[in-house]
Amino acid sequence: QVQLVESGGGLVQPGGSLRLSCTASGFTFSSYPMNWYRQAPGKERELVAGITPGGIFRNYADSVKGRFTISRDNNRNTVYLQMNSLKSEDTAVYFCNAKRTGYDYWGQGTQVTVSL
């Protein structure tokens, strides 16, 4: 049974930091590119960051470049999203995703709220 379980969301003030984690089970984690998406109220889900299976290559949405860092630990089957200098517009539900040809797995999401 495939599971992706996100954690680490919460309420933070503008300028603050959060670290999201996503722990995977039920598939060969080290073989999958991993992604973080987010969806704000009334908006479409958007890709925030992605990382290749070995962790060598990473990509980011322009809106988070220089503030967010994606990383992974294949020994722990976990992908992380370090979020610094948070802004109100980062408020969204953040989803972990594992995707490769023919397979597309999603977590349940974790809420991040940036507000005073």
Topology summary:
Blueprint: E1 3-7, E2 10-12, E3 18-25, E4 34-39, E5 46-51, E6 58-60, E7 68-73, E8 78-83, E9 92-100, E10 103-106, E11 110-114
Parallel strand pairs: 2-11
Antiparallel strand pairs: 1-3, 3-8, 4-5, 4-9, 5-6, 7-8, 9-10, 9-11
Describe the structure.
This protein is 0% helix and 53% strand. The chain is built from no helices and 11 strands. The chain has strands at 3-7, 10-12, 18-25, 34-39, 46-51, 58-60, 68-73, 78-83, 92-100, 103-106, 110-114. Strands 2, 4, 5, 6, 9, 10 and 11 form a 7-stranded mixed sheet that branches. Strands 1-3-8-7 form a 4-stranded antiparallel sheet, with no helix packed on it. The chain is globular. 30% of the residues are buried. The model has no long low-confidence stretch (mean pLDDT 97).
From the spread of the alpha carbons, the general shape counts as globular
Largest sheet: 7 strands, mixed
Low-confidence stretches: none
Q: How large is the radius of gyration?
A: 13 Å
Order of helices and strands: EEEEEEEEEEE
Q: Percent helix among the residues?
A: under 10%
Termini separation comes to: 40 Å
How many strand segments?
A: 11
- Which structural category do the helix and sheet elements fall into? mainly beta
